[in-house]
Amino acid sequence: xxTATFSSICFDQGFLSKDKVKISKLKHRNERAxxxxxxxxxxxxxxxxxxxxxxxxxxxxxxxxxxxxxxxxVRLLANHPYFGITLMTADRKxxxxxxxxFPHLITQDLPTMVSVKDADFSNVDAxxxxxxxxxxxxxxxxxxxxxxxxxxxxxxxLRDIAEYEEWYGQPHSAPDLQKEAVYGLTEILRxxxxxxxxxxxxxxxxxxxxxxxxxxxxxxxxxxRNIIIDAKSGVSGAGRGAKEANLYSEIxxxxxxxxxxRHRHAPEIEQGLSDAAHSKITVxxxxxxxxxxxxMQSTIYVEMSQGVTIEDLYQQLRKxxxxxxxxxxxxxxxxxxxxNVRGSNYCFMNIFPDRIPGRAIIIxxxxxxxxxxxxxxxxxxxxxxxxxENTGLLYRPxxx
Length: 400
Ligand SMILES: NC(=O)C1=CN([C@@H]2O[C@H](COP(=O)(O)OP(=O)(O)OC[C@H]3O[C@@H](n4cnc5c(N)ncnc54)[C@H](OP(=O)(O)O)[C@@H]3O)[C@@H](O)[C@H]2O)C=CC1
Ligand SMILES: CC(=O)N[C@@H](CCC(=O)OP(=O)(O)O)C(=O)O
Description:
By secondary structure, the protein is α/β, with parallel strands linked by helices. The protein folds into 2 domains: 6-202 and 373-384, NAD(P)-binding Rossmann-like Domain (Rossmann fold, 3-Layer(aba) Sandwich); 205-368, Dihydrodipicolinate Reductase, domain 2 (2-Layer Sandwich), CATH 3.30.360.10. The protein has helices at residues 14-17, 23-26, 45-51, 68-77, 98-101, 136-141, 161-168, 175-180, 186-194, 204-218, 248-251, 265-277, 310-321, 370-384; strands at residues 58-63, 83-88, 126-129, 148-151, 182-183, 198-200, 227-233, 256-257, 283-289, 296-303, 327-329, 347-353, 359-366. The strands form 2 sheets. Strands 8-9-7-10-13-12-11 form a 7-stranded mixed sheet. The site of NADPH dihydro-nicotinamide-adenine-dinucleotide phosphate has 30 residues, from helix 4 and helix 14.
């Protein structure tokens, strides 16, 4: 069985069917990976519906389905043999079908979107919450306790409620739930995610920044001072809502920095780095908006600890991520490009010696909508529900 190929398996989308990838290679830690080659369990949605058998095992509620991250969850779940969507919500677009809002999803059989206040959770086991921060905490507070929840917003990411209130400019209405939430930076906090009911999915910038820095800080290879992060995002990072600053004519043929000295991802990044260091770390962080739809690059300048070499940093990242499916340290000298990860759940990174002795430059790229949002969210829910972590996430990067 372990030598079956994906070409022998019925998936909704053609790209995997052409891949002669040995199933054994794709197995993760979880024994349920065996189900990949179990015949009926790998049938596509269409196959299941037409036979009326083998309904998907987990019923998913998707809150904020009409936004970019919601649509991305729908796209990813098309290839998930176990998770099926039974509830979708929208705000202004409540009452509409997904296919009318996102024609690229018209081939998927999906429920009509309803307003959150009319949502019936009796047919739901787990929820992806793709709502704006601020609105999310009230909604999650009202959900049935038995639901597993992955929240893509920032509402439960910061442990310190006072810090949340300072950076987000409003009181937190669910501090008790905040205590229960687990920060879902998967490759770093996988064990905590396993037992969680509520996961706070990390922001896109914090994901691309913490993945390379946390292993280096844990191994005491870099200094805690003078960490400088220059990060760039595609426009989809700002969501689908209309904003003057995101009009084509404002974005095309130029770049601009925003949130200079005060972007709300700074405390989130600092929380993760400080946990790794067991002492307070403060960073210089400046995000930029780029004239591209998806993609994110973080270029990070660090000071190496006394006596540490670039080779030490490289070997630490190599060791830390050698068994990881979605985080890849590239060969020495290869510069990561957002094109390398577009449409996929990968984070690619590399590390270079700076011309200033003792300093290093780290480059990390992700797709903000996948590893930076919906992909990592699905990775987390797979773990929370004890499914193979890579289920539904084996999309190859789109190039060009
Ligand atoms: N875009 C990205 O790259 C990333 C986004 N995130 C976070 O994920 C969350 C979703 O982001 P994204 O999909 O980009 O956002 P969008 O603006 O594209 O979508 C927001 C969704 O929430 C719904 N909505 C808006 N206001 C309300 C409300 N008051 N009550 C109920 N539903 C509401 C919208 O419905 P309708 O369209 O019908 O009005 C829409 O479905 C945000 O918290 C964002 O910060 C996190 C990481 C990366
Ligand atoms: C390009 C752009 O505008 N990006 C968003 C970050 C997206 C994200 O991760 O947002 P949350 O932390 O709110 O979930 C921003 O800078 O506000």
